[in-house]
Amino acid sequence: MTWYRDLSPVLAEGVHGIAFPVAGDAPGASVSYPEAGHGACFDIEDASFWFRHRNEAISAMVRRHPPDGLLLDVGGGNGYVAQRLVRDGWPVALLEPGVQGATNARLQRGLERVVCADFFQARISPGSVGAVGLFDVIEHVEDDRAMVEELARVLPPGGRVYMSVPAHAWLWSQADVDAGHFRRHTFDSMSKLLDGLFELEYWSYCFRPLLLPQLLLRALPFRMGLGRQTPPGRAEFEHGVDRGLAVRTLERLLRPELDAIAAGRRLSVGASAILVARRRRRG
């Protein structure tokens, strides 16, 4: 198994066929993520309407804006998104700094190309990937501009980056604190973050039916000092793992978003956002 040798000069095969960096002298990113986050996500991903809908939206977006070469899923966690993209027929390598997430991706999700490393410490070779995905990742990185600059170093001119992000600072709540977010994004904030290095090719909000519930049940109580602690079982309830009537209704309301994204239309309202940006061509 030598696929990682073209990806980075510092990677070597380790346990379970996962690639690890053998040199740790590169500075890592300051990333905020709960220690037990991967385990908690793995328990609900397959049954969650939220993860399911996000996967469908990402799949539709990538189909319309395909990668030119290997797609590196940075901060890919347990491999839920990467597994879907592989099933869609795209070549994907997952890069995840958490050992639990990388192990789940390799052993539970069956992904063949898994790297357990911080994005900076992995020292990905320039031009070794055709695209990079950061799916609900960049909001966890304190110095997100440094992350964007590293993306620009890794990608060739014209190479694509795919992202999903939580939207709107006014939706900030305890859920963001618990998740380890530094920020939520809008079209303007993301355009500013990418400015000079990437051109936005596609942007759309999504999860429109969740906008009002998140405002009323999360953001406003948080501003009032209420709901500062997340009760046990909240994640399972909010992700609708029981597939009750409310969840099935919500899924029907969400379905038109997928048709719009597949057709390349931009949705102007939503609690999250997805985007494609292209590395500016030099000169």
UniProtKB/TrEMBL annotation:
The keyword Methyltransferase applies. GO terms for molecular function: S-adenosylmethionine-dependent methyltransferase activity. The keyword Ribonucleoprotein does not apply. Keywords: Methyltransferase, Transferase. InterPro entries: Methyltransf_11, SAM-dependent_MTases_sf. Residues 72-162 form the Methyltransferase type domain. Pfam families: Methyltransf_11. It comes from the Bacteria. GO terms for biological process: methylation. This is Class I SAM-dependent methyltransferase. The lineage of its organism: Bacteria, Pseudomonadati, Pseudomonadota, Gammaproteobacteria, Lysobacterales.
